[in-house]
Amino acid sequence: MKLHDGVDAPSECQGVIEQFGIWGPYNYWRVRVSYVVSGMRYEVIESVKMKSQAIKLGPIPVGQKQVPTLPTTDVGAAVAVCYDPANPGRAYLRDNKGWMTT
């Protein structure tokens, strides 16, 4: 996986979700994650990517809802952060993949 400017081999570390909610000018779901590299603390803020999930009444699908692609959005939970080893402030959340942002 590459960082946006073509870094071929990003490093990975554990980050901690500091904030999850709707904020910003477009009212998107956003997540703020802090992480530490070589004793320095950094933050990454991203719009949360969503995926469709069926709503079922027993085995029968009756609708759909949007859920985050991140494994968890709980404040204080650990998530994987990929960062540029030459510039650790450039980072993204490994599991925040998808096309839909709500």
How is this structure best described in words?
- With 102 residues, the protein is mainly beta.
- The protein contains no helices and 8 strands.
- The strands form 2 sheets. It has a 5-stranded antiparallel beta sheet, with no helix packed on it. It has a 3-stranded antiparallel beta sheet with strand order 5-4-8, with no helix packed on it.
- It starts with 10 loop residues before the first strand and ends with a strand.
Rg over alpha carbons: 15 Å
Q: Could you name the ranges where pLDDT drops below 50 across 5 or more consecutive residues?
A: none
Question: What best-fitting shape do the alpha-carbon axes yield?
Answer: elongated
The number of distinct β-strands equals: 8
For the biggest β-sheet, the strand order reads: 3-2-1-6-7
Q: What's the overall average pLDDT, rounded? A: 88
Q: State the helicity in percent bands.
A: under 10%
Provide the β-strand percentage band. Answer: over 45%
Structural class: mainly beta
Distance between the ends: 24 Å
Element pattern in H and E: EEEEEEEE
Q: DSSP helix count?
A: 0
* Main pleated sheet: 5 strands, antiparallel
